[in-house]
# Entry
Amino acid sequence: MSTAIRFENVSKTFATTRGRTLTALDDVSLTVDAGDIYGIVGYSGAGKSTLLRTVNALERPTSGRVFVGDQEVSTLGGAALSRARQRIGMIFQQFNLLRSRTVYKNIAYPLRLAGLSESATLDRVEELLAFVGLSEKALHYPSQLSGGQKQRVGIARALANRPDVLISDEATSALDPQTTAEVLELLGRIHAEYGITILVVTHEMDVIREVCNKVAVMQDGRVVEHGTVYDLFAHPQHPTSQRFVASVLHHLPSADTIRRIRAVHTGRLVQLHVENRESNDPFLSRISRAHDVDVNVVYGGVDELQARLFGSLTVELLGTDENVDRAIADLRAAAVVAEWEGAR
Ligand SMILES: Nc1ncnc2c1ncn2[C@@H]1O[C@H](COP(=O)(O)OP(=O)(O)O)[C@@H](O)[C@H]1O
Ligand SMILES: [Mg+2]
# Structure
């Protein structure tokens, strides 16, 4: 697997107006493999945008190095930097379109900069417009477009020179949920059809979940945790990761909810963790029948994550103490009970 982007001990400080220094990036090392859709998530001020902007040298690290493919971009300048930037497409939260130019001209702009002929530019822009579904809008101005359409123009422009890498800074943060879903679907299609490596910066864990295969969590300029999306969602280690995961997965009842459930349900409460299950063994009804125990689902849900099932169900087991004990032992043996919530 080849490396698409590598951050090597990247730090960045800014001088503030009061003569202090602010550490925006603090020794960040991260490797993005070719073909990844790599997400960087964190709260506002975590350093996500600063990190992303080092990829095309809009920011220069104070120390450390940034590579795109084999090339160290953090030291490039002049024509070499311009050429490197043509290999890196960027999309923005506020779209950054040229307001006085038509959709066509916005997309044609980087092609003309790259020296493409007028007729080759025409062909390429038509192809891009078709790909993002805006063939009818070529002669419209940005002000005549919806937010989602503007972002699709931004994406077409970013793809114009067939980059190896696409970097996205909060590309869906100004969009409503429906439009966000459409833009994320488009990113997925770009990845599938062109095999482009995509680096996605967002403060929304839903975005990570929808499109990314890997994720890094940033806080105070540092990467506090990184890994596959499945592992991070299933077993977040750092408190910040746990908070982000809890913001989108609602399988586990909070302490308050457990208290309310307890007030109503007097049987034994058990939490079943559904994870990596590939067999279609109907374990719950099998075990319930074997031990003459009734099962009452009181909380939770099972979702798909990276095409694998993941979730948790809180169930109440009703039966004699001995039977419930036996059922719990079997559930543990079936490796689906990671923990259980005490007796009545
Ligand atoms: N050009 C700049 N000058 C001074 N401080 C900056 C500059 N850019 C970013 N910062 C500061 O660096 C920190 C990280 O910012 P940023 O990378 O934009 O975070 P995020 O994108 O995660 O919200 C913040 O404290 C921000 O105020
Ligand atoms: Mg930002």
